[in-house]
Amino acid sequence: MENLANKTAYVTGGSKGIGYGIAEKLLAAGVNVIITSRSQQSANKAADELEKMGHPGKVLAVEADVRNLDSQQRAIALAMQEFGTLDIVVANAGVGHFAPIQELTPKQWQETIDINLTGVFNTVKATLDGLTDSKGYLITIASLAGTNFFAKGSAYNASKFGLVGFTQAVMLDVRKQGIKVTTIMPGSVATHFNGNSPDSSDAWKIQIEDLGQLVIDLLKMPARTLPSKVEVRPSQPG
């Protein structure tokens, strides 16, 4: 996509963190962006902040839950009604529960899988027709935890290992229809994820705007070339 102006992007979990950073960079490039959150209030607050930045792209805030396919389909219907096309999908919404298997609860396990893995399935199913029509781009936000297991990470590792495999299989399913698919696998990112409060001590980490720039760079890759899996980590460990 050499010219991103007036393209339309759908970003799940776009009201904060990585999704917010990606939405901001897309808007700056002239892309119209739909951001979703499970809270309409949170989505509206983020949209107001993004609009005040004065970027050329338009932003639409939608309440939607990736765990529910009907919710995703309703959000896409609103997006199509507002903008008429769907060119870019960023499946970003995620959650993390970290505990030894002895302490991990069934509820924590289920929520992690429902949001991080089934939620992406629902997002893809809801957006596939639009992406097929536009020969668009699907990007999933996985993690280095999708290839590197660690103690207390059984639920998170399972969801992200699954997401990496899911995304690469989807890439093979849809590339003949002209849809490009990439999974981004970040390491440590300066966000509020898992109760963190970003401050100066997080300066060594990947910043949300860095991942936003990575998305822009992927979208502008020549059509013949597809970085299907991108690992990204801080240049120096903290």
Account of the 3D structure:
The protein is built from 6 helices and 7 strands; from the N terminus they run E-H-E-H-E-H-E-H-E-H-E-H-E. With about 240 residues, the protein is an alpha/beta fold. It has a single domain, classed as Rossmann fold (3-Layer(aba) Sandwich). Strands 3-2-1-4-5-6-7 form a 7-stranded parallel beta sheet, sandwiched between helices. Helix 1 links the parallel strand 1 (about 10) and strand 2. Helix 1 crosses helix 6, helix 3 packs parallel to helix 4 and helix 4 (about 105-135) runs parallel beside helix 5. The termini are far apart. The mean pLDDT is about 95.
Concise structural overview:
It comes from Neolewinella maritima. The chain has helices spanning 17-28, 40-52, 69-83, 106-134, 154-174, 208-219; strands at residues 8-11, 32-37, 59-63, 88-91, 137-141, 180-186, 229-232.
Please report which band the strand proportion falls in: under 5%, 5-15%, 15-25%, 25-35%, 35-45% or over 45%. Answer: 5-15%
- CATH homologous superfamily designation: NAD(P)-binding Rossmann-like Domain
Radius of gyration: 17 Å
Element-level helix/strand string: EHEHEHEHEHEHE
Strand order of the largest sheet: 3-2-1-4-5-6-7
Q: Please summarize the sheet with the most strands.
A: 7 strands, parallel
Structural class: alpha/beta
Any low-confidence stretches, pLDDT <50, length ≥5?
none
What is the element layout, followed by pairings?
Blueprint lengths: L7 E4 L5 H12 L3 E6 L2 H13 L6 E5 L5 H15 L4 E4 L14 H29 L2 E5 L12 H21 L5 E7 L21 H12 L9 E4 L6
Parallel strand pairs: 1-2, 1-4, 2-3, 4-5, 5-6, 6-7
Helix pairs in contact: 1-6, 3-4, 4-5
Keywords: Oxidoreductase
InterPro entries: KR_dom, NAD(P)-bd_dom_sf, Sc_DH/Rdtase_CS, SDR, SDR_fam
Protein name: Oxidoreductase
